Amino acid sequence: MADIPISHILFVSTALFFIGMYGLFTRRNMITVLMSIEIILNSVNINFVVFNKYLYPDRLDGIFFTIFIITIAAAEAAVAIAIIINLYRSHRSIDVESAEEMKY
After folding, report:
1. How many CB atoms lie within 10 A of CB 64?
2. Per-chain mean pLDDT for the chain
């Protein structure tokens, strides 16, 4: 298997991060905002794995951090989807703009 240069992997990770940031700041649908957050977390996971591989190839610290982030992301997605479903049931919309206009 050919060794991929670290610059190529970091370029992909940076591209994923900025795609996620773009989606986070420009989308109004809560589902796409949630997907953008997941893309950002995946770019962080790529960074952990690649830096672990190139800096400390005999240790697994980056892999453990990645597994921890994946676990946190799964819990965050479950809670966020529950909140989105509850918001849709009460307001018939998952638009971020309409969520800001809610009055309790």
Report:
1. 12
2. 85
Name every residue whose Cβ is closer than 8 Å to that of residue 20 and which is 6 or more positions away in sequence.
36, 37, 38, 39, 40, 43
Cα end-to-end span (Å), the chain: 58
Q: Which residues pair with 95 in a beta bridge?
A: 29
* Domain that includes residue 68, residue range: 6-100
Check if the beta carbon of residue 46 is closer than 8 Å to that of residue 23: no
Distance from the Cα of residue 91 to its chain's centroid: 26
pLDDT greater at residue 27 or residue 94: 27
Q: What is the pTM of this model?
A: 0.78
pLDDT exceeds cutoff 90 at 2: no
Query: What is the domain-level CATH number for residue 55?
Result: 1.10.287.3510
